[in-house]
Design goal:
The complex is a heterotrimer.
Chain A lengths: L1 H6 L2 H10 L4 H19 L2 E4 L1 H16 L11 E5 L26 H8 L3 E6 L33 H8 L5 E5 L6 H7 L2 E4 L20 E5 L2 H11 L17 H6 L7 E5 L9 H16 L3 E5 L7 H16 L20 H12 L2 H14 L5 H24 L2 E5 L15 H5 L6 H6 L2 E9 L6 E8 L4 H19 L11
Parallel strand pairs in A: 2-3, 2-4, 7-8, 7-9
Antiparallel strand pairs in A: 1-3, 4-6, 5-6, 5-10, 9-11, 10-11
Chain B lengths: L5 H10 L6 H18 L23 E2 L9 H5 L5 E2 L2 E5 L6
Antiparallel strand pairs in B: 2-3
Helix pairs in contact in B: 1-2
Chain C lengths: L8 H7 E12 L36 E2 H13 L3 E2 L6 E4 L9 E4 L6 E9 L5 E13 L3 E5 L11 E5 L6 E7 L9 H19 L11 E11 L9 E6 L2 H20 L7 E6 L4 E7 L9 E2 L10 H9 L5 H12 L3 H9 L3 H9 L4 H19 L10 H12 L5 H12 L5 H8 L7 H14 L1 H8 L6 H11 L6 H11 L6
Parallel strand pairs in C: 12-13
Antiparallel strand pairs in C: 1-10, 1-11, 3-6, 4-5, 4-15, 6-7, 7-10, 8-9, 11-12, 13-14
Helix pairs in contact in C: 1-4, 3-4, 8-9, 8-10, 10-11, 11-12, 13-15, 13-16, 15-16
The chains are: A alpha/beta, B alpha+beta, C alpha+beta.
The structure holds magnesium ion and zinc ion (ZN).
């Protein structure tokens, strides 16, 4: 029974709870049991809120018993990236500097989840402050990829994707600054969506790079992602950069997947050196699949995309150097070295030295450098010009096509430790995902097969214009249905059992 | 493009309030030199006459009415404080400005 | 305290030409903070007006207060500034424990208002134009309490206690262009500018601008250059000079200090200086070297402010009469000279006189009381007129009692004294102290008869036509009635009894 419950989709769980075939408590207990059984190996979670989850589940069951109408995700368990503030639950952002911090307020996204009666199981592991592509930068130890526990689950939201792939939760939340939802989805064979910038409130989401960060849904199916997308998206007056417009009809799109008559762009710059052969092969097959489903394929040239990674590694560190200045040992979090003789200044410096990991320090220094007088124009200023050019190239491309497709990430999951001390190699994991963050438009990753050489999942990225998030779901649902039909089952069923 | 020296890293670390250890300075200086060498490519567009984009959204004038909203209680505000006294955040002696 | 060498003011000015820059921070009187909905009410319990945003908690975000922007535009317009069509907030990055995010959300190269001026009137009536560089929006810091030191100061303290109620309160920073050509009047110009700015801010209704409450704070930047040269010398930045008098003193002190350093062949260090109210001196603060690098960049958590032109014109139309224009109008209405108006302004009596007239007094008597009796009293107590324990309505009442003949000037002064001493309203003081003009004709008639009898020679002179001599008899009667008689009435009575008519 438990085995069946944990393999159900979110949509199916909600349907059965609403119909009275399952209780929310049963569903929650099944997932808590699964976590108990496998998370020691996977280490997807930093914190499991057993009592809180069961209380939420009971509330859903009581609501149903009272005859109240349940929402489309009522009673469905979810794994929350540990970057959102939660009243009564620790929020560490994968960092020692916030160890034990229990926020006095809920993020807007968390409020939205609670309002949708989603059951929050706990907080998932991540690269410290969302900086990384492997979850190895977590101060609390790495997360294993359920396909091969010696490999990385992607990052920064590796915990959320691993939780989905390990059937510890049918839904998860991630955040995507340079690919932190999509790249983990790709390497774990799951679905992840970076909504249009401003589509999901950032209030209560600990900032890494404010102009790039965007929270979004992670799931095992396109429809589940759409249901979650709808639950968390929408205007928030507490976030000045939140879009005050109706949420695109993502669920409707996921329910009516098709690509017939659509024009799909393939960007020349998203292949070549550094791309694994099996990844390119699965991508090319996906393009063929799209063509066979009735899409028209259009070749695109976006030369500035080659500068995206460089621009990103100036903009994101610059913003993070300022965003992370607040971690100073004065008001919350870690305090080191306060022996009664040291100054506040020294205690701040000692605490930041002890509380931040290497990658965070590297980026703070890089960002401090890029913003400092004498360098600002050459680095930060030029990076922002690149941003303009990339946005223009996207705009031009979307005059010709409805969506763009690419591999999500150039390689499949690499072994834990392989790139740990080679930042430049690590940064390449986000080669295909970064342009979207710079331009602010929407993108999805969904599984498109296993790379022949290593048998690990490959992700297909779909990119849509800003506020056309529904196109991702329309195309994604069609591709997903075609692949499942071709494979005879969802890709994740090929993962070794834990 | 100039690279980055150990001294520069030390200066940046001071600006960023990071008490880096000696070996960290060496380690970071090498890595940052590589990274900066790579990302300096952006300056290829420095002379192009395009406006910088600091933000992906074309929004302007997002403001709120001047209406009081509930604050946290002092207990909530201070709940994460490493130290407190007299309902205030207790911090080590502050250097500098009087 | 280290002794600072000073050159005499005259010697300094003989040699050098001062250039000043004034930076004034005004705390707006909005109900809520600049970027969050916390109350700005003064006097609340520590940390009771804070939220995730103004505490800089992880995940929190700012949202701009619309009245903060509106106030900034009003100030800009009143200072004859251009208003930006599009501008942004920027982060000013530096670490300080009273600043929760360790960056101040401010504006950098895109201020909301720029290129304006403020005409200020000096004590002799001369108008001096102070050019305005910019006015921009930013936020205040929290307050620290230094514990363990001898004087509550930062030096020697063992630790500090932080209250963030003030953190995030909207500030408008108003920066002048370099003020050149003021010469020996530089300190006076500085004071007059800050005074005029304060009047302006109050007239706009955007802040009470109470310097004693820290709602308006001034930094005085000053440098000297030898007469006849164009390039500016190295400047010092004297921080937080928080009264009009201090602004003048700080400028004067720095002129003398700079001159002493320069004439002795030394160089001025670019540094911040602290002003000391007790002796008017400044002492060295933080040296501004290259290590200071605020790494400004556009605030990514806020979107640009692009005030619509129609809105700006609407605000422009709604601007109140500017203080100097208003003073000129009042001067004409009251029929006083430029010089008298200037002393009324210097005494801070304009609003009190206006309010007294509004409460029914005539202009002359309102002016007479505030500029005479009350100004003297305030001066003796070392307080401002508005801090005196008397209202314009009280003064209007006193003046009505005089007009009706119930009080004479002397008695009126006693009534005012009673009101200031907290004895109640003018009528209550009259009642309690029994201060009424003696108008009982019987009693007065007796006093008059006695005066005539006792001063027969003078009475004869008057009968003989020297009417001017009546004053002596009036004086005698007043003395006999201990001042409680109406002098005019006494005079009439004496003349009547002596059978003389005036004129
Ligand atoms: Mg300022
Ligand atoms: Zn607040």
């Amino acid at each position: 029974m438990t085995d069946n419950i944990i393999k159900l989709t979110a949509a199916e769980i909600a349907r059965r709870i609403a119909a009275g075939d399952l209780t929310a408590v049963e569903v929650t207990e099944a997932h808590l049991a699964r976590i108990e059984a496998v998370d020691e190996k996977v280490h997807a979670f930093l914190h499991v809120d057993r009592e809180g989850a069961l209380a939420q589940a009971r509330a859903v069951d009581e609501k149903r018993a009272r005859g109240e109408k349940l929402g489309p995700l009522a009673g469905v368990p979810l794994a929350l990236k540990d970057i959102f503030t939660t009243v009564g639950m620790p929020t560490t952002v994968g960092s020692k500097i916030l160890e034990g911090w229990i926020p006095p307020y809920d993020a807007t996204l968390v409020k939205n989840l609670k309002a949708a009666d989603v059951v929050i199981l706990g907080k998932t592991n991540m690269d410290e402050f969302a900086m990384g592509s492997s979850t190895e930068n977590s101060a609390y130890g790495p997360t294993g990829n359920p396909w091969d526990l010696t490999r990385i689950p992607g990052g920064s939201g590796g915990g959320s994707s691993a939780a989905l792939a390990a059937y510890e939760a049918p839904l998860a939340i991630g955040t995507d600054t340079g690919g932190s939802i999509r790249q983990p989805a790709a390497v774990t064979g799951t679905v992840g969506v970076k909504p249009t910038y401003g589509g999901v409130s950032r209030y209560g989401m600990v900032a890494f790079s404010s102009s790039l960060d965007q929270g979004g849904p992670c799931a095992r199916t396109v429809l589940d992602a759409a249901l979650l997308h709808e639950a968390i998206a929408g205007h928030d007056p507490l976030d000045s950069t939140s879009i005050d417009a109706p949420v695109p009809p993502v669920v409707e799109a996921a329910l009516s997947g098709s690509v017939g008559g659509m024009r799909v762009g393939v960007v020349k710059q998203f292949r070549g050196e550094g791309y694994q052969a099996g990844v390119v092969q699965r991508f090319d097959e996906s393009v063929e699949l799209l063509r066979s489903l009735g899409a028209e394929i259009v070749e695109l040239d976006c030369p500035t995309f080659d500068l995206a990674l460089s621009a990103y590694y100036l903009i994101a560190p610059s913003e993070c150097s300022s965003n992370l200045a607040r971690f100073d040992a004065m008001r919350y979090g870690l305090r080191v070295g306060d022996d009664g003789t040291r100054s506040a200044e020294d205690v701040t410096a000692l605490t930041r030295e002890a509380g931040f990991g290497d990658e965070v320090k590297r980026r703070i220094i890089l960002g401090t450098y890029a913003l400092s007088s004498g360098y600002y124009d050459a680095y930060y200023g030029s990076a922002q010009k690149v941003r303009t050019l990339i946005t223009r190239e996207f705009e031009k491309a979307f005059e010709e096509v409805d969506v763009i497709v690419s591999p999500t990430t150039p390689t499949t999951a690499f072994p834990i430790g392989e790139r740990a001390d080679d930042p430049m190699a690590m940064y390449l994991a986000d080669l295909c995902t970064i342009p979207t963050n710079l331009a602010g438009n929407a993108a999805m990753s969904l599984p498109c097969g296993l790379a022949p050489e290593d048998g690990l999942p490959v992700g297909l990225q779909i990119i849509a214009p800003a506020m056309k998030d529904d196109r991702l779901y329309k195309v994604g649902a069609a591709v997903e249905a075609a692949f499942v039909e071709k494979w005879g089952h969802p890709l994740l069923e090929e993962a070794p059992s834990l | 493009m100039p690279g980055i020296t150990r001294e520069e890293v030390a200066h940046l670390a001071r600006l960023a309030r990071l008490e880096l250890k000696g070996e960290e300075l060496d380690h970071f200086a090498g890595q940052l030199d590589d990274i900066i060498g790579a990302v300096a490519r952006v300056s290829e567009v420095a002379d192009q006459d395009v406006p910088p984009t600091s933000h992906p959204l074309p929004l302007t004038n997002v403001m709120r009415a001047d209406e009081v909203r509930p604050s946290l209680t002092p207990e909530q505000a201070l709940s994460g404080a490493p130290a407190q006294e007299q309902q205030r955040f207790k911090v080590p002696q502050i250097l500098g400005e009087d | 305290m280290t002794v600072t060498e000073l050159l005499s003011y005259e010697a300094a000015l003989a040699e050098y030409d001062p250039v000043m820059g004034l930076e004034v921070h005004v705390e707006l009187g909005t109900r809520t903070k600049m970027f969050c909905g916390c109350s700005t009410e003064l006097g609340a319990e520590p940390n009771s007006q804070t939220c995730p945003t103004c505490l800089g908690m992880p995940g929190s975000l700012p949202v701009v207060n619309a009245i903060g922007v509106e106030s900034a535009i009003k100030i800009g317009l009143a200072l004859h500034c251009e208003i930006a069509e599009w501008c942004r907030f920027a982060r000013k990055n530096y670490f300080y424990p009273d600043m929760p995010k360790n960056f101040q959300t401010s504006q950098y190269d895109e201020p909301i208002a720029f290129n304006g001026y403020l005409d200020v009137q000096l004590e002799d009536g001369e108008i001096f134009r102070v050019e305005i560089e910019r006015a921009h929006m930013e936020e205040d810091t929290g307050k620290s309490l230094h514990v363990g030191g001898a004087t509550g100061r930062i030096h020697g303290a063992s630790h500090s206690l932080l209250d963030y109620n003030r953190a995030g309160i909207p500030l408008i920073e108003i920066v002048t262009k370099p003020i050149e050509g003021a010469g020996e009047r530089a300190p006076e110009v500085a004071k007059a500018y800050v005074a005029e700015l304060r009047e302006l801010i109050r007239a706009l209704g955007v802040s009470d601008a109470r310097m004693d409450k820290g709602q308006m704070r001034c930094d005085v930047n000053l440098s000297l250059r030898p007469h006849g040269t164009k390039t500016f010398g190295t400047r010092s930045e004297t921080k937080n000079v928080n009264s009009l008098r201090s602004v003048e003193r700080a400028a004067r002190f720095e002129i003398q200090r700079h001159a002493a350093v320069l004439t002795s062949g030394g160089t001025i260090v670019q540094e911040t200086r602290h002003f000391h109210e007790d002796d008017g001196s400044t002492t060295s603060g933080r040296i501004k070297d290259n290590a200071e690098d605020y790494r400004y960049f556009p605030e990514p958590d806020l979107v640009p402010v692009a005030p619509a032109r129609e809105w700006i014109e609407e605000l422009r139309k709604g601007l109140p009469e500017l203080p100097r224009v208003r003073r000129n109008r009042l001067r004409e209405e009251w029929g006083v000279s430029e010089l008298d108006m200037q002393s009324i302004l210097n005494a801070g009596a304009v609003d009190a006189i206006v309010a007294t007239i509004e409460a029914g007094a005539d202009a002359a008597s309102a002016r007479k009381w505030w500029m005479g009796e009350l100004a003297r009293n305030a001066n003796e107590q070392g307080v401002s007129l508005e801090e005196l324990a008397i209202t314009p309505a009280d003064v209007a009442r006193v003046s009505a009692l005089v007009a009706s003949g119930d009080l004479n000037d002397k008695l009126a002064r006693q009534v005012i004294e009673g009101v200031l001493a907290g004895e109640g309203t003018p009528d209550a003081v009259v009642e309690k102290r029994g201060l009424k003009v003696v108008s009982d004709d019987g009693a007065l008639g007796t006093a008059v008869d006695e005066a005539i009898a006792g001063n027969a020679a003078i009475a004869d002179k008057i009968r003989g036509g020297k009417v001017a001599a009546v004053g002596a008899l009036v004086g005698a009667v007043m003395k006999a009635t201990r001042g409680q008689a109406d002098a005019a009435k006494v005079k009439d009575l004496i003349l009547e009894k002596l059978g003389v008519s005036e004129g």
